[in-house]
Structures are given as C-alpha cells and as structure tokens.
Write a structure and sequence with these properties.
Chains A, B: Catalyzes the hydrolytic deamination of guanine, producing xanthine and ammonia. The structure is a homodimer. Chain A has about 425 residues and is α/β, with parallel strands linked by helices. Chain A has helices at about 85-95, 100-115, 130-145, 165-180, 200-215, 225-235, 240-245, 265-275, 285-290, 295-300, 320-335, 345-360, 385, 390-400, and strands at about 5-15, 20-30, 35-40, 50-60, 60-70, 120-125, 145-150, 155, 185-190, 190-195, 220, 255-260, 280, 305-310, 375-380, 405-410, 415. Chain A has two domains: about 5-60 and about 365-415, Urease, subunit C, domain 1 (Roll); about 60-360, Metal-dependent hydrolases (TIM Barrel). A seven-stranded mixed β-sheet of chain A has the order 3-2-1-4-15-16-17. Chain A has a four-stranded parallel β-sheet with strand order 5-6-7-9. A four-stranded parallel β-sheet of chain A has the order 11-12-13-14.
C-alpha cells in the first residue's frame, strides 16, 4: 500500500478531554498506519502526491462495539416491547430466518453496506446461532474491507426450539468457525454467548475454555434490564451477581471482554469489571427504545471503567454512530434528574467513546496519533452553512445534523472502502 | 384546482387510539379537500385520471407546532448549555443577524426548503424582532406553498441591547405586519411574545390587545426550565403562576393559543390550560438537548389537555417531525423511571400529535377524513426490506429509520410543494 498523504481539516480525540483540531493539515500514512500530522509537509515528502480534501473534515472512522447483524431488517419495529418480550416476539423469529444461507447472504450484504455507508470502520458483531450464515458474514465483511470481530451466537436454553442448540453442537460449530476464519487480519472471531439466561452453565464453561484455548476475546450482554437481572439471579442462585456468572466461566476479562449495557450493576460487579479490564458498551438508543434505563456512564468512567459506544441494532434503530454519540450526550443530560451532581458528557468525551475509546478493543484504532491505523471518514457540509462556522462547530453540526450523505470517503487501515 | 385522485397505501390517525390503514386505496380530493377514501372507486369517478403511487405509503403531512426559523443555522451547536445561557451565548447573537434582510432572505429560504423536504406541511414559526426580515419570511413561505403561522418576536427587556425593542415600536411594527400579511389563505400572522421574562407587563398587555383586536392566535413559551420558572416568579411577584402572567394579559386562550414546552406546571396552571383550550407543544429533542426535563405528556393528555409536537429548531437539531415522533415515544418510555405507573406513548398517539393533534390548530388539517385539507407525503422504502413487512411495519420503519430521501412527494391543500 505504501505511502499516502491526505490533506484537510483533521479532527480527533487523543483523550476524552481533548478535541484536537489540525486545520488545513496533512496526515501521512505508511502502509495503512498514521506516520504523522503536519501543517506544512516536511521536505522529504515534498514531491509525494497529496489527496487534498480542501475544506472538508477528516475524522476517525467510527467504532461500533455492539451490533446484531441479523437484526438489521428489524430496525424500528416492535419497539413497544421491553427486552424479554421483544426477544421472544420479534427477534428470535427474525433470527431464525438465518438458517437459510440465501436469505443470510442478502441480509448480511445489506447490513455491511449500510455499516460502511454510515462511516463505521470497526464493529463487534453478533451473528446468529447458524454456522453457515455466520461464515458468510465473515466472508462478506472480509470482501467489503471493514474491520470486525464476528461471533456465532451460542444459546442452548430459554429460547424457542427453532433457535435452541445442543450444547455440544454449539461448541463444535463455534470451534470450527474459529479455525476456519481465525487467520484474517481485519475480520476475526469473538466468542459470543448470547447472554447468561440463554446459556446453560455447561455451555458457558465450554465457551470460556475456547476463549482460553484460542486466546480469543468475548462479547455478551450484562445487566440491561431489571427483569433480566432478576431472571439471572433465579437461574444462577449460587452466584453472587450476574457478572460472577460470566467470571466463573472464564468469560469476564480472562481474555479481552466486551459487555453490552451494564446499567444495573452492584459495587461488587463494578470492582470485577474494573479489575478485569472488562469494557462496557453503552447503547443509548437501544436503552431508551426498550425502556431499559439510562447507563450512568459518567459515574462508571469516574470509577476507572473503560466504556465504548454501540448502535445495538436492531434494538437501536440506526447504524449511524454519530447518532449514538448524540444520544449518549442527551441521556447523560437527563441523569441530572436522577442525580443532581451528574455532569453531562461533553462532545469530546462521547466522540472519544465512539472512536479511540471503543477502538482500543481493536488495538491502535480510533485516533490519528502516530502508529494508529488510518481508519477515517471525510465529511463535507453545505458550504452555505458550514462556511459560517468554526471547525469545532462544523464537527458538532455533522454529529447532530449530518448523515451518510455528508460522508464522501471512508478508509479502513488506509484502504478506501466507500 | 378541481378534482384529484391518488392511489396508494393510505395511513392516518383519526384518533390517538386508531392507526387507520387503507391498503391499495384511492383518496379523492376536491379543490384541495379530502372527499373520501375508497378501496374501489365509485362509478362516478370511473374515467377520472388516477395518480397511482403503487406500493408507496400516503401519510398526512407533518405539523410542526413550534419552530424558530432564525435558528436553523444553529442546529446542533452550543448544546452544552441550558436554556438561559444558550439564549444569551448562542441564540441572541445569531438572531441579531436578521437585522440584515439579505442575510435573512438566504437563511429563511434554506429553512423553508428544508422544512418542505422533511415533509412538514404546516408550521407555527417564530421569526425574530426584525420587521423587514419577518416580512420576507411571510413572502418566502407563501411562494413555497407551505401552510404556516408566522410571528414577529416581541421583546423589550432582559435581552442584549441589539435585540431590545422599544415597547411602542414593537407593537407598531407587529400591527403593521398583521395588516400587511393578514390576507393570505395559508400563511398567516400569529402574535409571538418571546416569553414572559423578555417582555414587560406593558408589552404583554398590548400584545393581548392586538390579539383581541384582530382576533389572532398567540404563541409563546411556558415552563420549559426550572430556572426560567423561578425567574418568572421573581419578575412577576404579584402573579400566582407563570401561566397567570399570560392569562392576565389576554394571551392564554382568549384567542387560540400555543404554549411550547409546559414541563413544570402546577395544578392551577393545568386547570387554566384545560379550561382555556390552550394547546401545549411537546418538543422532546429540545428538552433533552437543553437538559430541560421530560414533559409528562401522557399525564397532561389524561387531564384533557390538547398537545401537539414541535421540532423547536434550533434547540431541537432537526426539522424532521418523524424524529420528534420517535423522540416523544422514547422520552415517554423513560417516564417510568420517575413514575412507575406511566405508560409510554404508542406510535399512533405520537403520530396523531404530529398530524391531526397539532393540525387542529390550523382547522381541518392532519387527517384524511372527509373535509380535511389534503396535506400529504408519499413515502417509499427499499423494496428489499419493505417488501417483507406489513403496512404497519413499513409505517413504523419510516418513522424510525427513514429520512427525507424516503419522501418522494409532498402536498399542501392539494398542491404539490416538493
């Protein structure tokens, strides 16, 4: 791939506190990795070709830490339900369609195209229980050039017969996919027990063993809804908390772990999460669509917990992570009605979560510091409005009012994908 | 204009409880007014031309009951502030630009185009204090064909000098605009004291007299933010409540009245609102962007109060009323965390607020019953996804995931405007 040089108004968040704005600057990329940002190009690059994006903004591509590819067709539907009913009435029937690879190929292609269109460069994705269509999802994403962790879902109880796996088969098929798809540089397997209620203790333990054997990351759901938390307590009466169920199975930080939601957490769990480096995924749109609650994200961050953002499609109704940034800020503003001392998230903090914060799960991803993967989107706006605004305002305006039409180019590790 | 016949999948809400779906039906329109809906066209229309929209949805155009045209450029900016600071730091300086009619003409044209693009057929609009540019707004809206109430803002205190009016001049100029623009069938004047804190008692009383003299409607803001409510109490110590300030000036239901927000209301005020037929405007996006709070809309509706929806651009960051519908539903789901008995708004209820509910302020607007103005949008979706869905699901999907690209035609009183 060699050397590439891009020019534009470069904006990123090296830390949650800093919105770094490099006006009319050059970003030099070597083999897909950022080498440096220069207002004036050093002499050694003097004759290199520059892709000049003019007045446009160059931002890190988004990182979506929690999304269900098989629920893409469901966006916006059935949202008059809360979690457990929504799963059984809407989601399980929809996921059962993925037993058909022809259906899956079309659905996953549309999903991948939309993910890229919306400016997501990396995603942590739940497929379904179906081995063959999960394999197709790996292949489609590889072909499109996006970065992802992809998990075949495991579940062997508390779900309809048409989605219930035999425990052994679930493990075998998971391992087969790991072996088949483990070697790709950008699209990689992740262990994906759906959530504690739909997995037997035996299944969870076996998945934990796979995580250790192949040194693979883990993703699941945690404490999204009060009824769910109560249910886990009933199903695992010997475990002190929901988090302990995962921890005792080797699925809670023993390898890199993502837990979606994490709204209703005890002090013990917050300790386990922090001590084991578990990353929580805040999914604000989903949390209000399913009336789950508001994650006290500022409080969790204040306790030293790592957190990123997820679209959680289909309970969230859009793959646009710019909207997850806005919704996270909006919900953090409502926290003051529960806790008068709660301070809202700033735009920099929420954008950090959607880029470098979540990107850390992939390595050096989500920033434009030296050594980071050049995952980027190029953003333009109506010059009749943007022309009157500062660069920081243009950035805010894109997050709040922009959509995929404002994204004119998308890069993952230096390669243009859209 | 004569007779028009449209065919498609017609969906509307004759009441908040009923989502009426007329699959593959005809809607007959006479001189811009709905004559009837027929699955099979009666014989008398047998040879009339039919505009066939095929599988597409035909929905009532949206009604935006609260929007600031001069804040359109501000969408998404400065939202790390609450109401009073946002006004003084961002909004007042932005509105001052409208002293320049050249600037105003461009800004208002962009605003009107976007309003139409997003499927709004009718809007209740705040301009600024500036007479000349407010006049331009009347003219631009007339030309574009949208229906609107337009108000020159009045304020004579508690605002920067560059926006402060002399009381007498404020009244004179308001009356001049009423006389100049009072005769148009679709774009009409409305009295628009900004809100109690920025109007002297003398100004409020004089505006009330104009309302009576010309029998004109009134729009303002009410109880959006706790600090604002406290401020009104300090400014008008002799009035028992914020609502009484307006009521005592003849600005609270003596003529048709819209009050935006209405979050923090006392029992006395709820009584005044109901007894005087004041219409409250719920602006959910604005209320979370400025951390104002959540309007207990279901509770207010249960007390017999009329309410519609508003985009409240620029504190709300989008003119798309489909998004106001979704945000109203989402916030109503969060009410359960404040009041365990609160029931969320259904899609039909929220859509009703954004069409027939708000439309009642304009007369027979916002529905497709006989005698209603044919204000409509035609909606299409990706057939690869929509083709699998019921009509009700397609409707839900448009509200949650659609945008202006899904709207392929827009009508106001039978005339195509976009």
């Amino acid at each position: 791939m060699g050397q590439q040089i891009f020019k534009g108004n470069i904006i990123f968040t090296p830390s949650p506190e800093e919105l770094k704005i490099c006006a009319k600057s050059h970003i030099v990329v070597e083999d897909g990795t950022v080498e440096g940002i220069y207002e004036r190009l050093p002499e050694k690059y003097g004759h290199a070709p520059v892709k000049d994006y003019g007045e446009r903004l160059i931002l890190p591509g988004f990182v979506d830490l929690h999304v269900h590819a098989a629920q893409f067709y469901q966006c916006g539907l059935g949202l008059d339900r809360e979690l457990i009913d929504w799963l059984s009435d809407c989601t399980f029937p929809a996921e059962s369609r993925f037993s058909d690879p022809v259906y899956a190929r079309e659905a996953y292609s549309l999903f991948a195209d939309e993910l890229i269109r919306q400016g997501t460069a990396r995603a942590c994705i739940f497929a379904t229980i179906h081995k063959e269509s999960t394999g197709l999802l790996f292949e489609i994403l590889q072909e499109k050039g996006i970065g992802a962790f992809v998990g075949k879902v495991n579940m062997d109880r508390n779900c309809p017969g048409f989605l219930r796996e035999e425990t052994e088969v679930s493990i075998e098929e998971t391992e087969e996919l790991i072996i088949q798809y483990g070697g790709h540089p950008l699209v990689k397997p992740i262990l994906t027990p759906r959530f504690a209620p739909s997995c037997s203790g035996k299944l969870l333990a076996a998945i934990g063993e796979l995580a250790e054997k192949y040194n693979l990351p883990v993703q699941s759901h945690l404490a999204e809804n009060r009824r769910e938390v109560e249910w886990v307590r009933e199903l695992f009466p010997s475990r002190p908390t929901y988090s302990d169920v995962y921890f005792d199975s080797g699925l809670f930080g023993q390898t890199p772990t993502l837990m979606a939601h994490g709204i209703y957490l005890t002090d013990r769990e917050l300790g386990l999460i922090k001590d084991n480096g578990v990353v929580l995924v805040h999914c604000p749109e989903s949390n209000i669509n399913l009336a789950s609650g508001i994650m006290p994200v500022r409080k969790w961050l204040g306790r030293g917990i790592r957190a990123g953002l997820g679209s959680d499609v289909g309970a969230g109704h859009t793959l646009a992570m710019s909207k997850a940034v806005v919704r996270a800020i909006q919900l953090s503003k409502l926290m003051k009605f529960f806790d008068p001392w709660a301070k809202p998230l700033t735009i920099a903090e929420a954008f950090y979560m959607a880029t470098k914060g979540g990107g850390s799960f992939f390595g050096k991803v989500g920033s434009f510091e030296k050594g980071y993967s050049f995952d980027a989107i190029v953003v333009e706006d109506d010059p009749r409005i943007a022309g009157r605004l500062s660069l920081e305002e243009q950035f805010q305006r894109f997050l709040y009012t922009g959509d995929d039409r404002n994204i004119i180019a998308r890069f993952v590790r230096g390669r243009q994908v859209g």
